[in-house]
What we know:
The chain is α+β, with helices and mostly antiparallel strands. It has two domains: about 25-185, no CATH class; about 230-330, Immunoglobulin-like, CATH 2.60.40. Helices cover about 20% and strands about 30% of the residues. It has helices at about 30-40, 55-65, 80-90, 100-110, 120-125, 160-170, 220-225, and strands at about 10-15, 20, 40-45, 75-80, 135, 140-145, 145-150, 180-185, 210-215, 215-220, 230-235, 240-245, 255-260, 265-270, 275-280, 285, 295-305, 310-315, 320-330. The strands form six sheets. Strands 10-9-17-14-13 form a five-stranded antiparallel beta sheet. It has a four-stranded antiparallel beta sheet with strand order 5-6-4-8. Strands 11-12-19-18 form a four-stranded antiparallel beta sheet, with no helix packed on it. The longest helix has 12 residues, at about 30-40. The radius of gyration is 22 Å and the shape is globular. The protein starts with 9 loop residues before the first strand and ends in a 7-residue tail after the last strand. This is SHSP domain-containing protein.
Amino acid sequence: xxxxxxxxxxxxxxxxxxxxxxxxxxxxxxxxxxxxxxxxxxxxxxxxxxxxxxxxxxxxxxxxxxxxxxxxxxxxxxxxxxxxxxxxxxxxxxxxxxxxxxxxxxxxxxxxxxxxxxxxxxxxxxxxxxxxxxxxxxxxxxxxxxxxxxxxxxxxxxxxxxxxxxxxxxxxxxxxxxxxxxxxxxxxxxxxxxxxxxxxxxxxxxxxxxxxxxxxxxxxxxxxxxxxxxxxxxxxxxxxxxxxxxxxxxxxxxxxxxxxxxxxxxxxxxxxxxxxxxxxxxxxxxxxxxxxxxxxxxxxxxxxxxxxxxxxxxxxxxxxxxxxxxxxxxxxxxxx
Length: 336
């Protein structure tokens, strides 16, 4: 994100005195990211009669009528869901226009300060005091009082911004067919669900899987949609893990799993899904959607809860696309 100058988001009035939002962001990747998060999401306001239309963050900015805590619901949304929408919107865009997870985390985590005044940030749209972040079971990052808008009203945006978005994404319609996971907590204090975070690029939990395809790190949101999901279990003297690997070759010449002393697990292989064209005998199918993992070499890495004995590792790759491994713990009273 460095080296990109951003003019502040500002509002201006047209001849009809209608306030319009202008995103004078020179870098196309930053422009797309901020446009998506500001239009496809908004503050989750109380709606007693159920007839109120959802308002995006940019619509609220244009109206200059910022909500109060009392006007916001107590809903919670996984941050991975915001990332999933971002990657879904850009599914057919040029790969050079898509941020990897590391840069995306900076956008979500950083606070406004003198060193990053030139970059748009998530907190510009969703202030921390209104939308605090927490964890549940030390696993999912949750953001309070945010709602997904599958058919955003972009009339609050300047026409050149809308045209730029359509040109870069190839989309003509803003409507998305997605279901987003939102948790209602019935006004229960957010702190009871986890520890509030102080936002920062170093807060990534190493137990969460990192998926890399053809040298590019794929966000957790995409991993949930495609591959790399994993579960970890343990007993008194061993760990068990399972990794979802649909469309991965089971041939030992292309597949490997390495376990290190510190509990780091690295799975490598080759995917066979995500082609632009699929040949079946004499028929050629041109794929209309590309939601599965792209073809090529991949790796999935994560950490087990503690140190292990790599030499006491066994694994099996089932026909159901699940790789399962078991490895003995390195207990404190043991010596190597």
